[in-house]
DNA sequence: TGAATTCCGACCAAACAACTCGGGTATCCA
DNA sequence: TGGATACCCGAGTTGTTTGGTCGGAATTCA
């Protein structure tokens, strides 16, 4: 029951991107340095974000990445699914209908547990947005 | 974000055991046949249940396994943790304090997400007990 | 042009998953 | 007592995933 290191790094990287929102494109090298993550590893993660429409890439010199929408509108769940794909706690919840998990007597009863689990995981992750991960909001002001 | 096949098989096997609760020891071979699971693979899973105190083993001829307490008192979460160990969505939530995930600026903010996720997963799994997986309860009777 | 940057695909080693196999050892029934 | 039954244990195996690295091509700005 683990998320991948890619997801962990990806969330941290996106938090940085949220912190510098509206400051122009931020190159991966900067993120890599700030978070002590291998640049090459980040290069492998970010195309997923771009393909999912979470970020916009600017190529060439002085290029980099920026969020495609405000940090409040990007949820941790978006990031997780962009990197790891849809969340499926057990294989028989995948979309390929070839799994025989429901051909047994109590198959569909256990399936309900896994479905509930999957939904709750998505709920938790979709309840937190990027702006909550950075420290911008005036939480201490009355 | 996947549970292992061991957990999947383990829950199914425990459901069978719940179904035959109070019918004397049930040999692994029977469970293996009913669920089309390799006997040798089951033999590898069940010691975890015994060590966690979920089942009692009866050795010798006409031996087998039986639940150590009523199905209503065994949660799916117990089964999952017995097989896969404690649920830790990311490595920095493990008990070894050597992980540097909190030495960074926003480290502890993302950590809160993972902690919340871990707690919710446990909540869901601990909310379902074995008797809900089998079809004994008179749900259709007014 | 040249430096900075994204982008792309191949490659690689280590770990893990999902089993299998072979043999113990304890226990019971006849 | 002697099988037969069943649990117990650890090593081996095969394939996939993970967590990266490496080299280079395309693009853009100064």
Provide a brief overview of the structure.
Two copies of one chain form a homodimer. Chain A has 142 residues and is mostly helical. Chain A has helices spanning 5-19, 28-35, 39-51, 76-84, 107-126, 130-133, and strands at 55-58, 64-67.
Description:
2 copies of one chain form a homodimer. In chain A, 30% of the residues are buried. The first copy, chain A, has a two-stranded antiparallel sheet. The longest helix of chain A has 20 residues, at 107-126. Helices cover 49% and strands 6% of the residues of chain A. The N and C termini of chain A lie far apart (40 Å). Chain A has helices at residues 5-19, 28-35, 39-51, 76-84, 107-126, 130-133; strands at 55-58, 64-67. Chain A is elongated, with a radius of gyration of 18 Å. By secondary structure, the first copy, chain A, is mostly helical. Chain A has a domain at 5-85 and 128-134: Arc Repressor Mutant, subunit A (Orthogonal Bundle), CATH 1.10.10. The interface between A and B is large, with 43 and 43 residues.
Q: How many helices of chain A in DSSP terms? A: 6
The total of beta strands of chain A comes to 2
Overall, the morphology of chain A is: elongated
* Beta-strand fraction estimate of chain A: 5-15%
Helix content of chain A: 40-55%
Largest beta sheet of chain A, briefly? 2 strands, antiparallel
The chain-level structural class of chain A is mainly alpha
Task: Find the biggest chain interface.
Answer: A-B, 43 and 43 residues
Give me the side-by-side strand order of the main sheet of chain A.
1-2
Q: Which CATH architecture of the domain at 5-85 and 128-134 in chain A?
A: Orthogonal Bundle
Oligomer: homodimer
Name of the top-level CATH class of the domain at 5-85 and 128-134 in chain A:
Mainly Alpha
Q: Which residues of chain A form runs of ≥5 with pLDDT under 50?
A: 137-142
In CATH terms, the superfamily of the domain at 5-85 and 128-134 in chain A is: Winged helix-like DNA-binding domain superfamily/Winged helix DNA-binding domain
What order do the helices and strands of chain A follow?
A: HHHEEHHH
Beginning-to-end CA distance, first to last residue of chain A: 40 Å
Output mean pLDDT of chain A: 89
Radius of gyration of chain A: 18 Å
CATH topology of the domain at 5-85 and 128-134 in chain A: Arc Repressor Mutant, subunit A
């Amino acid at each position: 029951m683990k998320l991948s290191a890619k997801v962990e790094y990806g969330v941290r990287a996106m938090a940085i991107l949220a912190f510098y929102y509206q400051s122009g494109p931020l190159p991966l090298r900067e993120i890599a340095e700030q978070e002590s993550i291998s640049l090459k590893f980040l290069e492998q993660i970010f195309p997923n974000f771009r393909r999912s429409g979470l970020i916009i890439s600017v190529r060439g010199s002085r290029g980099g990445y920026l969020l495609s929408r405000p940090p409040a509108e990007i949820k941790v769940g978006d990031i997780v699914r962009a990197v790891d794909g849809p969340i499926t706690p057990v294989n028989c919840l995948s979309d390929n209908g070839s799994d025989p998990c429901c051909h047994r007597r109590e198959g569909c009863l256990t399936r309900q547990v896994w479905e509930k689990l999957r939904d709750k995981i998505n709920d938790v992750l979709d309840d937190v947005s990027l702006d909550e991960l950075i420290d911008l909001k005036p939480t201490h002001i009355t």
